[in-house]
């Protein structure tokens, strides 16, 4: 078993997360952000991680701090497990056609092509931007098409899980430098 955990307590949030890298996709998630619980469970299910996540936050203000701090914790946990350096995949789900690519290179860069930045999409952008900073990776999310925002967000988290499922078995370091 490869179980890692982290607790992050700030004036805005109190988060505890445990992840078993070689699980079966089981999860217990309680953030009081019911839509986020739903989409985060998609990531866990498709990655075949097992996850316990508990988050108390200042939801009277909004959900920004909770989403950002969960992403920080996730990045700090997943960086403990070596994965294949280059990971890219596509997904087609209903009206969504999407690409995600991750270079686990110990350098930080985030890109997406989201043009309509309502609050939900801003939170998705914040989640993955914070993740790339804490996982220390280059992360690209490119949406070719979508009509339904719920399908877009759900497919992003599903594909993110699929990428980590495929990337878990690190075999070789791909770098001419010999180190990342």
TrEMBL record:
Keyword Amino-acid biosynthesis annotated: yes
A GO biological process held by the record: L-histidine biosynthetic process
Keywords: Amino-acid biosynthesis, Histidine biosynthesis, Lyase
UniProt xrefs under InterPro entries: IGPD_sf, ImidazoleglycerolP_deHydtase, Ribosomal_Su5_D2-typ_SF
Associated pathway: Amino-acid biosynthesis; L-histidine biosynthesis; L-histidine from 5-phospho-alpha-D-ribose 1-diphosphate: step 6/9
SUPFAM superfamilies the record matches: Ribosomal protein S5 domain 2-like (SSF54211)
GO molecular function term, any single one: imidazoleglycerol-phosphate dehydratase activity
Tree of life domain: Bacteria
Protein name, entry field: Imidazoleglycerol-phosphate dehydratase
């Amino acid at each position: 078993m490869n179980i890692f955990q982290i607790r992050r307590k700030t004036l805005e949030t109190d988060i505890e997360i445990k992840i078993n890298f070689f699980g079966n996709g089981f999860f217990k998630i309680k953030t009081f952000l019911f839509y986020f619980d739903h989409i985060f469970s998609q990531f866990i299910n498709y990655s075949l991680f097992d996850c316990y996540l508990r988050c108390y936050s200042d939801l009277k203000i909004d959900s920004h701090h909770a989403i950002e701090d969960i992403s920080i914790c996730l990045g700090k946990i997943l960086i403990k497990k070596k994965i294949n350096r280059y990971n890219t995949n596509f997904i087609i789900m209903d009206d969504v056609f999407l690409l995600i690519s991750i270079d686990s290179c110990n350098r930080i860069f985030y890109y997406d092509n989201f043009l309509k930045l309502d609050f939900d999409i801003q939170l998705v952008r914040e989640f993955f931007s914070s993740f790339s900073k804490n996982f220390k990776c280059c992360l690209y999310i490119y949406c070719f098409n979508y009509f339904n925002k719920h399908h877009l967000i759900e497919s992003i988290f599903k594909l993110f899980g699929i990428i980590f499922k495929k990337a878990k078995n690190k075999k070789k370091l791909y770098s001419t430098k010999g180190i990342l």
